[in-house]
């Protein structure tokens, strides 16, 4: 099958008629999600995506996740085709005045056109920002897109975040970053949302015998690296400039990342 028609399923039913539920999601802005690419009804790293959803459900709602139901709705939305899939968990009954009151979570599964990381490289601007509740992929995305907009107004493609105190690199707006020193891949250690794509790349690089290191990376260290790259569910994209610092194209790194990205199996959404 080819690309799926855009669809939104709320607890397995078409969401178009559920205006009240979607208003609750938009107005309350309390929830969490995961995003993934689906090809021919299959996706990589399903266990990691469900781990993310499971942990988010416990932290935000103190409720378990019905993983079989969610996986079924994902398969229903993807319909065996190619798409971008987003699974958002929120609660129509959540009341910010009584945040401890038990509520039943709702699941919105959205399928849209498939995407992949642009072939064009990224030029990013360093911006001081600390993601709130960084361990969760939550729906509070306003500051991410605001910083991206500010970076684009300054002539860059996107923003790269550093903490304000120690100037440690943390992450991009909707992506993680890695660096190449010619021998190993260095992943910045800082409070950030740890992406499923980042984890899959780490596993793939390890399987191919590529050395890796996770440690704090300061802005002052950036000239010592030979290359940088961004990764998220859409794929891997080279980072060729951070502020005024330029990085050259590194075919060796590109080949290593391509091989690592292809390592994870594509698992069927259908049980």
| Sheet with most strands | 9 strands, mixed
- Secondary structure tally: strands: 16
SSE order, as H and E?
EEHEEHHEEEHEEEEHEEEEHE
- Silhouette: globular
> Helical element count?
6
* Secondary-structure content class: alpha+beta
Q: Low-confidence runs (pLDDT<50, min 5 residues)? A: none
Beta-strand percentage? 25-35%
Rg estimate, integer Å: 19 Å
Helix content: 25-40%
Measured between the Cα atoms of the first and last residue, the distance is 18 Å
pLDDT averaged residue by residue? 93
Kindly describe this structure.
The structure is a single chain. α5 packs across α6 (251-261). β8 (158-162) and β9 form a beta hairpin. The chain is α+β, with helices and mostly antiparallel strands and 271 residues long. The strands form three sheets. Strands 7, 8, 9, 10, 11, 12, 13, 14 and 15 form a nine-stranded mixed beta sheet that branches. Strands 2-1-6-5-3 form a five-stranded antiparallel beta sheet, covered by helices on one side. It has helices spanning 19-28, 46-61, 67-78, 142-153, 196-207, 251-261; strands spanning 7-10, 13-14, 32-38, 42-44, 83-90, 106-112, 122-128, 158-162, 169-172, 176-180, 184-188, 211-215, 227-232, 235-242, 245-246, 266-268.
């Amino acid at each position: 099958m080819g690309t799926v028609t855009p669809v939104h399923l709320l607890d397995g039913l078409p969401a178009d008629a559920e205006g009240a539920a979607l208003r609750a999601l938009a107005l309350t802005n309390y929830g969490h999600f995961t995003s993934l690419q689906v090809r021919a009804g299959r996706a990589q790293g399903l266990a990691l995506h469900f781990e993310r959803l499971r942990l988010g459900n416990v932290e935000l709602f103190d409720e378990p996740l019905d993983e079989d139901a969610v996986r079924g709705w994902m398969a229903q939305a993807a319909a065996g085709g190619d798409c971008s899939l987003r699974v958002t968990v929120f609660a129509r009954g959540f009341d910010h005045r009584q945040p401890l009151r038990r509520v039943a979570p709702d699941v919105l599964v959205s399928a849209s056109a498939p995407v992949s990381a642009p072939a064009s490289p990224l030029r990013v601007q360093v911006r001081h920002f600390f993601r709130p509740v960084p361990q969760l992929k939550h729906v509070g995305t306003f500051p991410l897109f605001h910083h991206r907009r500010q970076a684009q107004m300054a002539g860059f493609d996107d923003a790269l975040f550093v903490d304000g105190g120690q100037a440690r690199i943390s992450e991009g707006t909707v992506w993680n970053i890695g660096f190449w020193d010619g021998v190993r891949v260095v992943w910045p250690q800082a409070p950030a949302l740890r992406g499923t794509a980042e984890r899959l790349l780490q596993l793939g690089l390890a399987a191919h015998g590529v050395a890796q290191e996770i440690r704090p990376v300061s802005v002052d260290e950036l000239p010592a690296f030979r290359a940088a790259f961004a990764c998220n569910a859409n794929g891997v994209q080279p980072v060729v400039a951070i502020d005024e610092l330029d990085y050259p194209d590194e075919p060796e790194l590109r080949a290593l990342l391509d091989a690592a990205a292809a390592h994870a199996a594509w698992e069927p959404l259908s049980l």
